[in-house]
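Whiteboard transcription, Tuesday session. T.W. wrote the structure tokens on the left side:
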């Protein structure tokens, strides 16, 4: 099936071209700010339960589509040289990525309002020099620029609601693909509520063998506290984010939007959800697996 083209100031799914899959490859698939790095940490902890991963999580698990950091030929060469079970991340909707029968895909969703609040921090902390370089290339390609943070949360929210492929349609494409046998849907709320239980569900999906005695440490490595303090294990992100890992792996909390967004903004959000997502998808997006537990 022909892949739909997705290209923006920061990413381009044409970077998949030339990718050589292997049996067992793992793809962490998310809209931005929905728990991507968290899931990458979880996958790494499950694949290397003794904590002996061959490198920092963010170094060995690249974002395939990201422009401006790793040249494409270097990206493919790095992945080809890896001898371990590979795991990568993608921020592309389901109709824009290749689907390999022998690979495993994990899609992570989050309440859109929580994802938006996390995105505000993301934009604020993004390094100016990298933004400028990306914007220079985007201007040459006729693409919208990466905005600088002005502190105007409400103006940014209005703009975010209009981004069709960034969150809402992105979520809809994976919901439509949810019956694929090699796709697992995971929700941020469920990770917050029962990290150990969700990690066991993910381990079963990946077919990883974690010795029972190792489970407490395997799970503990994936708490926000351990991730934020674990630059050696997670990797340095200073070249992309001001403040490094502690800015990138920020609060990890939900519900901050309640004290920020106005009643009119929440009504506009509800209209956007209703106009984009099927009701069952919208309920899952907001509440997680509990929304699917019906009598």
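and on the right, the sequence the group agreed on:
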């Amino acid at each position: 099936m022909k892949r739909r083209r997705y290209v923006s100031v920061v990413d381009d799914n044409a970077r998949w071209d030339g990718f050589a899959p292997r049996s067992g490859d793992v793809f962490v698939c998310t809209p931005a700010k929905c728990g991507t790095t968290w899931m990458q940490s979880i996958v790494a902890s499950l694949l290397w339960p003794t904590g002996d991963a061959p490198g920092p999580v963010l170094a060995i698990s690249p974002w395939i589509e990201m422009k401006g950091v790793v040249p494409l030929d270097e990206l493919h060469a790095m992945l080809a040289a890896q001898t371990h079970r590979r795991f990568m991340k993608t921020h592309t909707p389901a109709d824009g990525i290749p689907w390999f029968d022998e690979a495993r895909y994990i899609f992570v969703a989050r309440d859109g309002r929580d994802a938006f609040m996390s995105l505000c921090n993301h934009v604020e902390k993004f390094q100016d020099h990298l933004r400028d370089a990306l914007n220079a290339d985007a201007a040459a390609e006729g693409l919208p620029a990466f905005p600088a943070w002005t502190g105007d949360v409400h103006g940014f929210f209005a703009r975010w609601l209009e981004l069709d492929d960034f969150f809402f349609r992105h979520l809809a494409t994976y919901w439509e693909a949810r019956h694929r046998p090699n796709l697992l849907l995971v929700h941020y709320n469920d990770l917050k509520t029962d990290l150990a239980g969700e990690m066991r569900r993910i381990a079963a999906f990946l077919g990883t063998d974690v010795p029972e005695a190792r489970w407490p440490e395997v799970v503990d490595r994936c708490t926000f506290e351990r991730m934020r303090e674990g630059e050696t294990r997670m990797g340095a992100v200073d070249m992309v984010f001001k403040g490094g890992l502690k800015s990138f792996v920020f609060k990890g909390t939900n519900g901050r939007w309640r004290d920020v967004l106005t009643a009119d903004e929440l009504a506009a959000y509800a209209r956007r959800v209703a106009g984009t997502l099927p009701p069952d998808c919208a309920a899952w997006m907001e509440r997680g697996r509990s929304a699917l537990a019906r009598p």
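Someone added at the bottom: The chain has a mean pLDDT of 89.
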